[in-house]
Amino acid sequence: MALLMMDDEEDGRKHFNYNKIVEQQNLSKKKKKKLMKKKELLEDDFEVDVSDTRFQAMYTSHLFNLDPSDPNFKKTKAVEKILEEKARQREQKQEELTKAIKRKENDLQKETAKKPIDPALSMLIKSVKNKTQEFQARKKQKIK
Q: For residue 85, how many other CB atoms are within 10 A of its CB?
């Protein structure tokens, strides 16, 4: 019996009408002031935990993108927070990629600077270049 009575007590839960909240967010300042005077202005106090690991797919997968051009899209504080977090993570990932590319370039430059070319190999390269130049010169003379 006590369990049935517990349901009647107010436990801090607050019901809301999503459509009214969205409508009131899009009102002009004058209309908002009128509603505030009447104390009918609803506050959207819903908080989204953007750092929750269960929702990481929203930021990484293209399947969960929010489409502002969709007719059912409603711009609320929670949606704005999600979009900001997605942009922040995208920017952070881009910075990491640029740092990784710079690191690889530096490593390649260090490797090429460290390894001296073998003298026998350099002589071979020079001889091949000379022979190709001679061949190209003979080929040009035959064409004329």
A: 16
For the chain, first and last CA: distance in Å? Answer: 111
Q: Determine the residue type at 54.
A: R
Of 55, 46, 40, residue with least CA distance to 80:
46
Closest CA to 50 of 85, 75, 74, 93: 85
Residue 44 burial (10 A CB sphere; 0-12, 13-18, 19+) = middle
What's the pLDDT tens digit per position in 54-96?
888 888 888 988 888 988 888 888 888 999 999 999 999 999 9
> In 10 A of CB 20, how many CB atoms?
13
Q: Which residue has the tokens 């809301």?
A: 16
Instruction: Find the DSSP H helices in 1-144.
Output: 2-6, 18-25, 29-38, 57-60, 77-114, 119-143
